[in-house]
Every structure is written in structure tokens, then in C-alpha cells.
Design brief:
It is built from 2 helices and 10 strands. It has 165 residues and is mainly beta.
């Protein structure tokens, strides 16, 4: 057999009948890694300096909710509420991750035959029933380099001396 005709290698962490729906880079408070959504679970894996893989696996039947927290001056966070603990991930396009998690969780499959979703109900309606987004607003104060007083960053001028910030 030639080297050019190899079969694609299946990921070793996938179980029988499990397949990847979405994957991409993500971060947690522990470090950078890869976030993968399969038809059965959400998996965050990161490798340490020695090459050992540390993985967080969240089964989709334990996920109660998924949403996005938008923060000023920072990337939006993907928050996954699961039975036992809440997990926070910083991933590109966090809103699409939340929609995908909720749609996979609510879709009937061989792994989840007891799904309560009515087949006549369109999936987009279930996505619109996702939790409302929590918006956290932060006021950033900067110190004036001339008089030393604190002023809001959005104003652009010092409220005490009128100097440009």
C-alpha cells in the first residue's frame, strides 16, 4: 500500500458512533486549548508542556443551558450551565457556539432517544428560546496626567482641568 493512499485517521477520543460537529480554538482560566462539540458531548482539551492532554468532557444530556456574556473591551464568553458546575470558555463566535450546543442538545438522536422535541417544531424556534444575553457594562476611569484626578474614559476631557485625556 502506498503512503499516499492512507485512510483518514479517526480521533482517538471519539467513541463508537460519535462524530464532531464543530471545533475550534478556545481559552479558559487554565489556558488555551481546543473546544469540540460532538453529537454526545462538549470537550475542551489542552496539552501541557510534556504533551499530556488534559480534557474537560461535558455530556450534552447534563447541559441545562448555554449562553453568551458580552463584556466591554473583552471578547464575549461562552457560558455552559451543566449539572454540577458552570463552565466558561472564550471562543471565537461564542453566540454561534451557544446556538449550536442548544440545537444539538435538543435534537433527537440515537444517543438521546427520549428527546421531548416535537418533530413538527422547527429547530429555529428552539434556538430563539435560548436564554437572554447578559450584558455587563464597565466604566473605565483614567487618571489625568496634568492634575491627577479620575475621569471617565468616554468623555475624552478631564472634568477638573479640561485637559485632553
Amino acid at each position: 500500500m502506498s503512503l499516499f493512499h492512507r485512510k483518514p485517521r479517526q480521533k482517538s477520543w471519539l467513541e463508537q458512533g460519535e462524530f464532531v460537529i464543530k471545533h475550534g480554538p478556545a481559552r479558559t482560566e487554565d489556558g488555551d486549548g481546543t473546544l469540540a462539540l460532538t453529537n454526545r458531548r462538549l470537550r475542551f482539551a489542552r496539552a501541557d508542556k510534556r504533551g499530556r492532554v488534559d480534557a474537560i468532557n461535558i455530556r450534552l444530556d447534563q447541559v441545562t443551558d448555554a449562553g453568551v456574556v458580552r463584556r466591554a473591551l473583552r471578547a464575549p464568553q461562552l457560558v455552559v450551565h451543566a449539572a454540577g458546575a458552570d463552565r466558561v470558555f472564550i471562543a471565537d463566535s461564542a453566540p454561534s457556539w451557544a446556538k449550536e450546543i442548544l440545537s444539538v442538545r435538543s435534537a433527537p438522536s440515537a444517543a438521546n432517544p427520549a428527546s421531548t422535541r416535537d418533530p413538527a417544531t422547527p429547530l429555529t424556534v428552539l434556538i430563539q428560546q435560548a436564554p437572554s444575553q447578559v450584558i455587563e457594562r464597565q466604566t473605565v476611569k483614567v487618571r489625568c496626567r496634568y492634575c491627577g484626578s479620575l475621569a471617565d474614559e468616554s468623555i475624552g476631557k478631564c472634568s477638573s482641568c479640561g485637559a485632553k485625556l
